[in-house]
Design a protein that fits this description.
heterodimer, A: about 210 residues, alpha/beta, Rossmann fold, six-stranded mixed β-sheet, two-stranded antiparallel sheet, 4 helices, flat, B: about 110 residues, mainly alpha, Serine Threonine Protein Phosphatase 5, Tetratricopeptide repeat, 5 helices, about 0% strand, elongated
Amino acid sequence: MKAPAVVILAFAIGAGPACRSTADQVIRIDLPGVSAFVAGSFDEVVVTDFREDLPLPDFRAGRELREYLAAEIERAFRGTVTRLDAPEEALSGGRERVLVLAGSIRMATAVRKALDMKNVPLDGPFKPPGRGLVELCHWTMTVDLSVLSAADGATLYHRRFEEERDYIDLEKPAEFAFSELSARVRGRLLPVLLGSSTLETRTLLVR
Amino acid sequence: MRRFFPSALAVLALAGLAACARPLATGALSAGVTAARADDWDAAVRHWAEAVRRNPGSAAAHNNLAVACEKRGDWDAARREYEEALRLDPGNLVIKENFVAFKARLEAGRGRTP
């Protein structure tokens, strides 16, 4: 074997591993939630009664919302969750690393007429046309929610949640509407407050 | 033939060393990826930090460290690592895509304050 051939062979053997093809690695990873608040910047959440703009006769929506949100936050938050009647109680101490949830709630109901394709009540011996006006019980929940810093009372976050739902049952009680509508508020509030993890795609490089 | 044998061996050794220089860093990168796939992100970070130590100009290592920082929820560190990776390799589309996805997610989570 001649010298040039040896050199070329040696180069090929040596360079081969260095030039081997290695593909980028696409992975799916569960990333922690991104909160509207800096992670780890608070270790207590105080939930206060929500002021009722339109009190209902037999249902204390403000207290119920406080209890519901506090319980849901407790399930997802590692720190302390405290329930208080009024935000002033939490703000008076000037405590650091404490968030205060406060605001107001308004639940209202009205009977509305709507065109329904299927649920028209039979009236008379003839086959109904299959559609007609029906009366629906329309519930609306409006929650004005603020997140305050207990240290200085500053408003860190504010949002108005408006949820509504129609019910065929005209006597649908406030408790029932509350449980459905408050769950929607919770679904939109908690990711902002605590962050919710999501499955994301990222690419790792190997060379 | 015998005259050329020592020189051929020397060339072979040099080529081998040259070939090994890069895999030392890429080996750490690969080991990190394997660890990440096994959900052992602490080990992955150790491997990628080692890759950066061996080759500070490795955009790939900084990219991977950025992903690890995202996994830990350390958004500031992730941003720094992505920016460093792009500074080292501005044309790398993979790093750009990762960084865009990172920023979009961060803005979606934080951008709703009043």
